[in-house]
């Protein structure tokens, strides 16, 4: 084997202080030559390559800067904590590192122990600071490189200086980042008019230095505003003297109504601003959600899109569509300050306004729903759906400050589920004109079922069983049903089906039945089936329309995916028969309180759903139905019965709706 050629003496390094040597860049720092003789291997080491080492130092600085790991950067002359000094210099840009790459390295004088690297620094203002897409700050800077140490301790490092971060910082200036949020876009109703828009508000607070008795101030404000007086007193006592201790934010109209009393409270102070608000405090509150100052958790999770002091959607639709509604902030970056009082604008990006979100809410119908629940003591919900389109006209929860049980609640449906059971029976050839005995009890495999308050009507037509909501009659008919019959019929009414509402909503869960007892209980809504009030309003809308209706809440932007069709639609004639039975509930059954509601005839089905394990079992109250083109579902937690509790609320709602449309 022929070994490598001997090095050319002309390439040998000149003595220190002698003529400048010629720089040679090779692929590696070690060239190995192996000669096998008598079992020995000879390794020849080449001299260190200053040019390659200088480049490696520049690459290491770029990598450390990009990774936000200044402690790992090879630096000389750096402060004790280079990361802290960089944060001071970079100001608002320090929250997220830039992308740094080495453009070139000048190693002409590497043999003398000096070199320089040109770096390209790019801050992604869109991804890291919430600016419009494509917004960047890119600039060039120079890293001076120096070989430090001697012999085996020799190493190449970048010389630390503020100018390394940016040339404009050489005289003591620092980066200043200014962010400007655009006005938040409105949320619209189905008519295209705002249901949430910028509204004048007043922030009520306390300045501790202006009151001599924090407890008295807190007690006075608690009496006027309904806040926690003890908690407020503690916050006042712990705050600095000139702090603004937040108490509550009031609509301007609400503040004006109490202005004199509030201003008379020692230490009370006030700030005016605007917030995106609905027409009333209760208006679809859980659905629409709220907007407020971002928390530290929101800032951290936003990936730089939000900073302290920004406003963001914190719940409901405002949070789900926050990026669309909020738009993108404007960003200006300056090099400012220092010995020359520098103020150099490095980049300026204008804010981009948000885009509206159009919902299916009808202003008048929503306010009627809110008002119908306003005096209900138990947690409750009311949903209204357009029978022609499936558009959700109203989503109300009582109290308005609670969760969104109207859309996402999971409750047993009770006897309102008899609409699905009846549809399954009709699809199997059942004749609704036949008599079905309504006995006091009905037993299946040792499990005894009974009617509400022990009622029994004898051997009567099924129409009367349905109108009077006889549980035992339905349980006795359950052997006619297959394990999947109830699930299939419910899906034909939209319950348990796939939806594309544009918001979080529970379509229902209707498991296949697993035994005779399970099927009997499920036939009148006391099995394992769970639904939301929206799901049952959709069921009523589907019966009213004579065809499946799926709900939609957000119209623009349109949902990305359309739901898949059901395997087999219900027969129109069966839905028409079911509609007639629901009219009997109003004229001759458990919902006669709806018989004289102004306007078109009302069809309905009441329900009383047992739940829990107490003795006796507590119950929820339901009423579903429709009038004209408006389907509805009313749900009341711990209501005695659908006819006694939920149906009167439905009457109030329909009466208010009729008055609002007159």
Chart the SSEs and their pairings.
Elements: H1 50-66, E1 75-76, H2 82-90, E2 99-106, E3 114-124, H3 125-129, E4 136-148, E5 155-159, H4 162-165, E6 174-180, E7 187-188, E8 194-206, H5 214-225, H6 229-238, E9 245-251, H7 252-263, E10 268-277, H8 285-288, E11 291-293, H9 296-301, E12 311-313, H10 316-320, H11 322-326, E13 330-337, E14 342-349, E15 357-359, H12 363-373, E16 380-386, E17 392-398, H13 405-408, H14 418-427, E18 435-438, E19 441-444, E20 447-450, E21 458-461, H15 462-468, H16 471-477, H17 485-492, H18 516-523, H19 533-545, E22 554-556, H20 572-588, E23 602-610, E24 619-627, E25 630-636, H21 642-661
Parallel strand pairs: 1-5, 7-15
Antiparallel strand pairs: 2-3, 3-4, 4-5, 6-13, 7-8, 8-9, 8-10, 11-12, 13-14, 15-22, 16-17, 16-25, 18-21, 19-20, 23-24, 24-25
Helix pairs in contact: 5-6, 12-21, 14-17, 14-20, 15-20, 16-18
Walk me through what this model shows.
This protein is of the alpha+beta class. It folds into 3 domains: 50-170, Nuclear Transport Factor 2, Chain: A, CATH 3.10.450; 188-283, Penicillin-binding protein 2a (Domain 2) (Alpha-Beta Complex), CATH 3.90.1310; 363-661, Beta-lactamase. It is 29% helix and 24% strand. It has 21 helices and 25 strands. Strands 7, 8, 9, 10, 15 and 22 form a 6-stranded mixed sheet that branches. A 5-stranded mixed sheet has the order 1-5-4-3-2. A hairpin with a 2-residue loop joins strand 24 (619-627) and strand 25. The radius of gyration is 37 Å and the shape is elongated. Residues 1-47 have low confidence and may be disordered.
